[in-house]
Amino acid sequence: MRIDIISVVPQLLESPFSHSILKRGIDKKLVEVNIINLRDFATDKHKTVDDYAYGGGAGMVMMIEPIAACIEDLRSKCTYDEIIYLSPDGELLDQKMANQLSTLKNVIMLCGHYKGIDQRIRDHFITREVSIGDYVLSGGELAAAVLADAMIRLIPGVISDETSALSDSFQDGLLAPPVYTRPADYKGLKVPEILLSGHNEQIEKWRHEQSIDRTKKRRPGLL
Ligand code: SAH
Predict the structure, then answer these.
(1) How far is the CA of 215 from the centre of ligand 1 (A)?
(2) Fold classification of 2-152 (topology level)
């Protein structure tokens, strides 16, 4: 998979891809992540990428020219399955969408700022709009990092124990059961006996019951 992320604050995206599981995916060449600085496509000497909104009102709007030039430059070198704009009014990201997007080959993610981007970009260049939740962030970078993380960890080979990604919350419409590790007894706080029993079948049954119980209590809408 190749993910090209267009941003005016590329520094915000350095850390998420430089550590842990995402870094491992990149090192194993299972995914390539390129951060593109939108200011490189500005045409004036101040590297302007935003301007006042037509019709007035507070807040700047990201201009069509640098974004269009950047997307066209990328498209001249690669064919993309999706050009995604991160936006609070987009389709709400969930595990099903992450699963589907994780099978794509080449993706652009465009991060907005200020009041957002000129609507003409959304109408003519963007193929999909994704929101990471019903709240407003100051920029699309953190949202792009969230979306990319949710996609990359599902690529076979990125997580060493592949079944682990499949047993996460939401994958089977249920929340994950509680998990424990050593010590078995911490100052009297004990790990459930069943997990120490070695009876795999019974352990799986217990986990499934715990999942159902947790989902009923916390997210009944998923059932
Ligand atoms: N005026 C816009 C919000 C702009 S926030 C509105 O009311 O809809 C600035 C940028 O942050 C957006 O262009 C988008 O790229 C990003 N952003 C903010 N909240 C987001 C969310 N919940 N999901 C995805 N991207 C978001």
Answers:
(1) 30
(2) Alpha/beta knot (3.40.1280)
